[in-house]
Structure formats: structure tokens, C-alpha cells
Fold these 2 entries.
Entry 1:
Amino acid sequence: MQSDCSTTRERHAMKKPQDILTAPHEELEAIQLEGVKKTIINCYENVPFYHNLYDEAGFDPYSVKSLADLAKAPFTTKQDLRDNYPFKMFAVPNEDIREIHMSSGTTGIATVGGYTEHDLDIWGDCFARGVWYADGGPTDIMHVCYGYGLFTGGLGAHYGGVKAGCTTIPMSAGNTERQIRVMREMGSTILCCTPSYAMHLADTAIAMGIDPKKDFKLRAGIHGAEAFSDNFRRDLEKKLGYKVLDVYGLTETMGPGVAIECMEQNGLHLAEDHFYAEIIDPKTGEVLPDGEWGELVITTVDREATPVVRYRTRDITRILPGECACGRTHRRIDRLHGRTDDMLIIRGVNVFPSQIEDVMKTFDQVSSWYQIELTRKGHLDVVTLKLEPNPDFDFDEVRAIEQLQHDIQARLKSALSVGIRVRIVEPRSIPRSEGKAVRVIDKRGDDQ
Ligand code: DLL
């Protein structure tokens, strides 16, 4: 019998995990409010960083009565997490921590995420939604080649696969030919890895004489961890004969599964029962209405080990207004253009690498392999897009190369209003990555 004092969250915990995906939005908001209030108080009482932050800002953590009130709380930044490395952001004692993950830290000190048993359980539930969105379950064979280890991709996808009842193959990244053999021999149906690695798998399989559409049984790919354009996605779907769902997440709030696309491919459903999202103007910090592009800010609703309040992700997206045709009620974010840090400012125009990719991929002659190089000539930045042609393009035909470079340059200029030099480079000369692809090489410091 249901007790009167059970919370909204407890009542929901008694339902099938999929039921929450179609719950009326007011119910989700009630869960969020209850969770956000608890998170703020938990942070204030158990994490010295938040205690000081709120006291200094004059923010009363007990004053939140509505989700809109959250806007009064100060932000948390990546720097705050770095300053508290490794364990000072933990809100529970060490004996309750079951697992730790870390961001790659390529741009500085890494940030650490801790997980209690409950946190691992909700992580599995969040990623399992990708499988459910792909109409998948126990009959699926999930091939996970995100890296296992401190990176959240491998284990996050793995927990999701297990939770959804899939036969989960923990391949981890690398050894591409072996991945291809296993995919073929075991009949993997769902592929989980970065989109660039999926492209590398597809190209390598084709080069090995395999026809992925016939020889593989793939029907869905759950790809994320880096931005990829719509045209890149179409190319991937054409080569592998499956449907690509975009998955978003970050170490600081959990890992993959914060938001995942459904088969409509029209925005990523936020896991709103676990995360409360706001979009802010990155310059003023003001909360923006649905539909406007800005920086995604996340508050965890029920994270125990490393809860965050108003974490500035630096990722640029928007909340898509309206309901999704799939019938699920969780609001959607648009596919990401990239992070504020990745944005190139070319002679005053803001451009994301994924927008350049989208234009370049309108040319049939070019492959999906490219790199953007930034150099400096005098006081001016020079942006060069290096890209590889498709294998059937005659690389020795100089006139054709010059013409193609010229045409791509002109289309970039007209689509994005930026002057970018285009250079077609030798096939297979751009490094392949097993994880996140390196799209931008900044050589401006080298020239001085
Ligand atoms: O990349 C978690 C992840 C693993 C997501 C596997 C999806 C799949 P981090 O290494 O902490 O965590 O990097 C997080 O990657 O802030 C975004 O800038 C970027 N990112 C993640 N997913 C997407 C996506 C993982 N679907 C950072 N589209 C985030 C674009 C993404 N960028």
C-alpha cells in the first residue's frame, strides 16, 4: 500500500523505468523541484565550497520555493571543480563512493566525478534510454567501443546496455580490424562510440572489402562525446545502413546520457528526472527563454556523490520549444554546435567547426576527414581547412583539385560569411582517432 508520506520521487521509483519518459511535464517539474531543493541544501551542508560560495553571495539555500528561484543561485564553473580536485566536491563520505571518473584534462587539471551505488544505477538508467529510444532491448547486441577507463564513455554505455538487457560487448576503443571482425561475427546491432570512430570503422571495413550494410547487422548507433554535423550523420548512416542517435553528457554531471535523441532525430531528450537544465546568455548569465541559443547550465536532481548546482557546461545549444512527435514528455535540447571554447572567431564572425563540416560535406568528392588549422600572418589569423578527398577521387588531377578547393571555399564564404583557405590533402594523411577527433590545430603560437 502506498504510504501518504511517500515523495513524488519514491512514487515514481515504483513504476517501470520507461514510464517516467511519458509522465506529464508537471510531474517531472515536481520531481525536479523536490530534487533541486534537496541538492542545494545537501551541497550547502556537506560541501565546503558551496557553503562559502552561498555565504559570500548572500544566497539563502533554504529559500528556493520554485524552479525559477534557482536563478538566484550563483553558478559553478569548471575552474571551481578543478580548484577542489580531487575529492573536495564530494558530498558523501569516501566509504559511499563506488567509482570515480575523470575528464581528460587536456586543457588543464582534470575534474573528478564520484558515483555512489545509486548514482551508478541512475547512470545506467539514463544511457539505457538510448536503447529504448532505438526500440531496443534484450534481443540487441550492444558493441561498446567508447574507451573504458577514466573516460565516462565506455562504462556509461556499458551500464546502459546491461540495464536495458542487451548483450553488452565491452570492446573499448582501438584495434579497429578486431572491432570489425567481432561486429561481423557476433552480429552487433547497436554501436556505441564517438561518431568519428564510427566513420573510421566504416571506412576501414569498406577498405577491407566488407559491405557493412550486408555483412553487419547494425540497426542503431548511439554516438556522442563530440559535435558532428547533420551531413556527417547522413554519410555515416549511408555507409553503415543504420540510424544514428546523438548522445550528450559530460563528466562533471555524470557522463553520457544527460540527453539522448529518439528515432525522430529532432533534438535530444534531457533526462529531466535527473537533471534540471537552463540556457543562459554566456555573457550576462541571464536565463534565456526556450528556443534561444545560449550556454547550457545543469543542476543535478538526485546525484549523491558529486552533485552540482548551476554548472556552466560551456556547451552551446537551446531548448527546443514544443513537444516531440515520439510522445515522450522530456524536453529536448538541440544538437550541439560545440563548446564556447571551440568557437572560432574568424575576422569577427563566430563559427563552430561543425558548421564548417556541414558545408564541406555537401560536396560528394570529399570524405569526412578534415582538420582546421589556425596560423597567423602578421596580425591576421589565417584559417585553413584541410580535407581528404573520397577514395574514388583522382588525387593526381591537379585541375580538379584546384577547382574543388575553389568551390568549397566559395560555398563556405556564402554560407558562413567567412574566408577560409581550403586545401585538399593526401588520402589518409589526417590522423584517425579512437576517441574524440582533434578537429582544430592552433599553430598561432608557433608562428611568432
Ligand atoms: O564526452 C561524455 C560522453 C561520452 C558523452 C560518450 C557522449 C558519449 P567529457 O569527456 O567530460 O564527457 O566531455 C564532455 O564533450 O561538455 C561537450 O562539449 C562534448 N560533448 C559530449 N557529447 C556531445 C555531443 C563526455 N553529443 C564534453 N555533441 C561536453 C557535441 C558533445 N558535443
Entry 2:
Amino acid sequence: MNDSHSPRDILRDVFGYSAFRGEQEQIVSHVAGGGDALVLMPTGGGKSLCYQVPAIARHRAQRGVAVVVSPLIALMHDQVGALEEAGVHAAFLNSTLSFEETQHVEREMMSGRLVLLYAAPERITTPRFLAQLDSLQERGLLSLFAIDEAHCVSQWGHDFREEYLALNVLHERYPGVPRVALTATADDLTRADIIERLQLEDAKVFISSFDRPNIRYSIIEKKEARSQLLRFIQDEHEGDAGVVYCQSRKKVEETADWLVSEGIKALPYHAGLSADVRKRHQDRFLREEGLVMVATIAFGMGIDKPDVRFVAHLDLPKNIESYYQETGRAGRDGMPADAWMVYGLADVVNQRRMIDESPAGDDFKRGQIGKLDALLALAEAHDCRRVRLLGYFGENSQPCGNCDNCLNPPQTWDASEAARKVLSGVYRFHQRGGQRFGAGHLIDVLRGKASDKVQQYKHETLSTFGIGADLSEVQWRGVLRQLIALGHLRTEGEYNTLELTPSSRDVLRSEVQLLLRDNPKTPGRTKASRPGAKPKAPPVALDVQGLERFTALKAWRGEVAREHNLPAYVVFHDATLAEMARSHPRRLDELAQISGVGSKKLEAYGPEILRVLGHALS
Ligand code: ADP
Ligand code: ZN
């Protein structure tokens, strides 16, 4: 292996990539040069290279080990495997290792041979480990600290980990060793918290755009959620890996069972399953191709599988931050991916009720309601989803051309009058003896339906009875949903009875015009309009021979991955195999040109690959 220290040489030689992405180069130079950094980059942005390249550069210059703090024990094995595949000596220390294995890793670390060591924060702050770091430090063998998932130090997020708080010891004890903290959580509060708690006041802050241009956002009206999901998977993602998020464990189980009964390879994942089953399902998701994980939000943090082709939400996430984070697990490899969600009136009502009924204080609840409102406005939007999403995080952008609203601009209709009918309907109930009713009954009254309840309360005598016969029940539900989403109406209590809000009056007085999304016929993409979405399609267009080569390469990769007990993408990404199949290299130097082929992999696999491609080396 060549011994160059320059970041670009390392990028090319070790990882086989021809150029840094976005801010990677500035970050890498800054950290390799000994500076502290806080890196805010979206999922899939390429954070790993921001500490791996400096670690390699510093190791080549002066030996020494970079310590990577990560809370994700389950992923360390594969992260280390990927580095070793690329010829970088790396290891991890965690509770899954035997005594002998631990000793071996410690010897490698203390000798200064190891380039990167991954460990969980609770391990790093033990007296024993700190004593080892002291010894490394005395001999000048501590090259770098990388603190991954740095938002875990903040109590604002739901990933807070107590053990992260103790990590400021690294700065206090080893002030001369550069530190880089990395996270995909963008908000100001979390950022300030990370800086303060990790004592990164002097660190240079690198903020990347949080846009994920390869993700296509769609939010559609919930009708038959399951069959909508099935159609989405069958039409657009057959044979693809994906995640389906549901709110409850029960719904996770039912949805997974149902998908399986429909012939889709799916597994459930939620906190109610034993640790054993969870691990097994996660491993299968990472290692097998085309598996659909149906999960609660217990699943996903740090899942760095690059080829997740879709994330589907059958229930509303809690807020825009969660929506962004959960959908962000799609398409880390930069290839086209879908973020797809269905939602309806019941979701809006349930989410509001969950906040109402939580034991939290009023201030906190107000905050939660504000966040939910922002999410609902995103869901009801008739303009570009991405502009709104990025706008929420303080980024300005132009309509993207890659969301449902850009691709199929929804019809809008002036629903001001329909909205007034709804609100006066609620108002009349209140007038009539202060009674409260839910959506179903109101719609019956508006549509002039003489239901039992209507007769019981003599509601056929209300002036609002029958004034809305022109719209169907589904249309009325849409109006109600949007009114609630926009805050002009709310529901209360166990029976979700309807209540007016301060802004109801403005609508009633015609002071606001309400343009609502029409319930479009979900035009969507037909199978024919997206030929790229065929089963197991390669990421680049291939002719028949190319496809054969791609299939052969994948089969070969599967064997290697099994032999090494690693996920297939650690050996080579799909995109790399597809490029091999397309450009059909005949010699090693041609193969070396392909993105993702570093010098170690070329040496280890080059001849085999050429043989698979039908050109055995003589
Ligand atoms: P993050 O941790 O920010 O979510 P990763 O570090 O896992 O992202 O990188 C996402 C994917 O992008 C990985 O598959 C990685 O190999 C690839 N990648 C990162 N940087 C580059 C680059 N400069 N050129 C090509 N591919 C890259
Ligand atoms: Zn758009």
C-alpha cells in the first residue's frame, strides 16, 4: 500500500473514491491538521470519512490510534469490517467480545498498530480505559477522538445518553488531541448543547445543507392504508429493502404478518420483542437483500445500511424533526429513494390527543402542539414539500421537482364556504344546550342524514341540517381534517368532540380564504412511467450482457460477504458492481478506475472479479 498522507490520496487509495463530497475536504484537512470540529451533516452525507481519513492521515504521519465513540454497539462489527476490507487496521471494544479477544484488541491498540478503535462511551470513561489512554498519550500515540452521534449528549432529543455527559473528560485530560463531534441532528438547541457539554467552544463548526436530493417525498391521503402500502411496494419497490414505520407494536406485528401473507419478505421490530429477536431481525435486514422492516421508532438509529430504497409511514411521526430523521434512513448511497406517508383525519386527532393526555406541563405541551402543527402544515401543503422541510430547518431553497407536489401539482379548491358550514355546525351544537359532538355526527347533520343520533337530539331542526348535501362524506372528512390540521378546529376528550378555536372566528367572518388540497385520485406513477423501479434493478442502465454480469457479480459478492460474515454492501456497493458490469473492465488498472475500488480491494478481489466478468488473468 502506498504511504501517502494527503487526504486526497487516502480517499483514492483506501476508499477508491475520486473526489470528496461537499464540505468533507475542508473538514478532513482541518481535523487532520489537529483542529477540533463539530460536523453537522445529514444522514448519508458522508460523515464517516470526516474522521476516518484524518485518522489514517495522522496514523501514517505519526502512528497512533483514533478513538471513535459510538453508542451503537450493534453496528461496530460491520463498521470495523468495512475498514478492514479497505485495508485499514481497525477494531472495536464492547461487551460482545470474549476476554481473549479484548486482550488482543488492547495489545493492538497499545502497540500503536491500530488505526481506529470503536468503543461505547461507558467503556471509554472507565478508569481502566483512561489509564490505557494515558499511556498512549505519554508515548504520543493518541491521534484523534471522534464522537459520533454527538446529539446523544443533549437532553433535548430523544436519543439522550447519560454516558455521553462524561465525555468532557477527554478534553480535560488530553487537551492536545483533536476532537471531531458528528451528528445529523440540525437544530440550534442541540448544537448549542453539544458545544457546551463537550467543551467544543473552540471547535470549527461545519454545517452542510440538510437537503437529501435523492429522496422523493410523498404524503398522501389515507384511505385503505394497508392496500395503499402494498400497491406502493409492488408498483415501485418490488424486491427493494425498506422500512415501514407504525406507531404501535400491535400494528407493527399485524402489518408485518399481512405483508408476508401478500408475498413480501417482511419482519417486525419493536421494543416489545426480546433483545435476541430484535438483533436477529436487524442482522437479517442488514445482511439480506430486499427485506422490509416493519417497525416502531425503536428501530433505525444509526442503521447505516446504504441501500434502503424506501421509508414508509403508516402513522404520523411526532414532528418534522422525527419525519426528517426517519425518512433520512432511505437512500444513504445517494441513489433514488422514496419517503412515502399516508395520513388521515384519525391521525391528526390521535396525535393531538396524545399530547393533550400526556402528563407533561403546559409549556411543554404548547411546544409539542406547535411542532405538530408544523408537521400538519407540511402534510397539507400544496406547494413543494422540500422547500417547506428545509425551510423548517432554516434553509432557503427552490421548488425541487422531486416531491409529489412538484411532480403532480395537486388541485386546490376554495373551501372557505365548506369550512364555514363546518364551523357553524359546531357552533349550533354548542348553542343547543352546550352539547359536544364528534366528526361523524357533524357530517351526518351537514349532509342531512336522519341517523338515530340526529333524531335523538332533534338535530334535524338545526339550521345547519342538510346544508352540506353537495359534498360526500369523504370530502367532508377531508375538510375537517384540514381544518383541524390548520388549527381552525380542534377535538377534545375521550370522544374527540369538536371544539372551536380562536381562529375559527376569522374563518366564520370570511377573513381567511381557505384553499384546500383536493383529494386527488392519487395519480402517482404508473409502473410504466418508472422503468427503473423494476425488481432488483441495477442503479445504472445496463444492456442484457451488462445485466448478466451484474447478476454474476452480485452472486459472487454474496459468497464473499457470507464467508467474511459481513453485509454485502461492505464488500462493494451495488453502484460499484453496476459500474463494473457496465464498463466491463478487462484489466486490473481499468478496474481500479471504478469508484469504490480501493487498492486493498483491488489486490484482494481484482483477479476474482475479472474472472467473474469472464476475463481470467493468464
Ligand atoms: P453518514 O454517516 O453521514 O450517514 P456515511 O459516512 O455512512 O454517511 O456515508 C454514506 C455513503 O456515502 C457511504 O456509503 C459512503 O461510502 C459514501 N460516501 C461518502 N463520501 C463519499 C465520497 N466522497 N465519494 C463517494 N462516496 C462517498
Ligand atoms: Zn418539491
